[in-house]
Amino acid sequence: MTFGEKIKKLRTSRNLTQEELAGKIYVTRTAVSKWESDRGYPNIDSLKAIARFFSITVDELLSPDEILTIAEENQKQTEKGIQNLLFGLLDICMALLLFLPLFANKSEEVIKSASLLTLSVETYLKVLYFVVVIAMVALGLVTLILRKHMVHAWQKSKTIISLSLGTGAALLFIISLQPYAAIFAFSLLVIKSVMMIRRT
User: Fold this and answer.
1) What was the pLDDT predicted at 153?
2) With bands split at pLDDT 50, 70 and 90, how would you rate the model's confidence at 144?
3) CA dist 3 to 42, 51, 63, 161, Å?
4) Coil, strand or helix at 84
5) Burial per residue of 85-111, b for 16 or more beta-carbon CB atoms within 10 angstroms, e otherwise
6) DSSP secondary structure string, 38-58?
7) What would the pLDDT profile of 164-180 be if each residue is shown by its tens digit?
């Protein structure tokens, strides 16, 4: 008997609908439906809640192979969560450019270091800097907010957007002769790239 069949049998033995069972173990009806049709497994916490609710052990619910599958899925979800957290924090780190003196202010013959807030350059260039920095910080915040929500399209696109914005920021700072800001942006980009390579 598969895990899905066991859940369905336990649920129907108590005359519960999928929605009622979902409410008892604090998950969605869709999750229960997915489990019963063997299209996925619950996470460890949900598994414990199911076992507690039906007064059985986790071993009675799962075969050894299914336990391994769930453990592997949980490990992958944990790794994705950590990567999302780190990606979000790295993107938010771009906000440091607003305050750290990593830009060069050129006045007469003297070059002084300045933060983005105190930088004196052409207006269009300063606007470009602000747009890139704010876009990366906003992406970082959205990544942190949505890191628990595993929407596949978002997971894939946020990585591409983050790497693209990071590359654009580094190139913009290089082209506009802001070496320290470029090194800062490039360093963040390298860290994210290494994380991506390690994951694959």
Assistant:
1) 67
2) confident
3) 10, 12, 8, 38
4) helix
5) eebbebbbbbbebbeeebbbeeeeeee
6) TS----HHHHHHHHHHTT--H
7) 999 999 999 999 888 89
Nearest-angstrom CA–CA distance, 176 and 154: 32
Q: Which domains does the chain have, with CATH numbers?
A: 3-62 (1.10.260.40), 75-199 (no CATH)
SS3 label, residue 17: coil
Pairing of strands 110-114, 103-107: antiparallel
Alpha helices by DSSP H, 40-151:
44-53, 58-61, 64-92, 123-145
> Position of tokens 């290494």?
194
Residues paired with 112 in a beta bridge: 105
Tokens of 81: 């969560």
Which token pair is 101? Answer: 């003196």
- Element holding 184 (H helix, E strand): helix 179-199
List Cα–Cα distances, 50 to 35, 54, 69, in angstroms. 12, 6, 17
For residues 87-111, average pLDDT: 85
User: Where residue 112 falls among pLDDT bands split at 50, 70, 90?
Assistant: confident
Are 147 and 85 a contacting pair, CB within 8 Å? Answer: yes
Q: What is the mean pLDDT of residues 97-122?
A: 82
Burial of residue 151 (CB within 10 Å: 0-12, 13-18, 19+) is: exposed
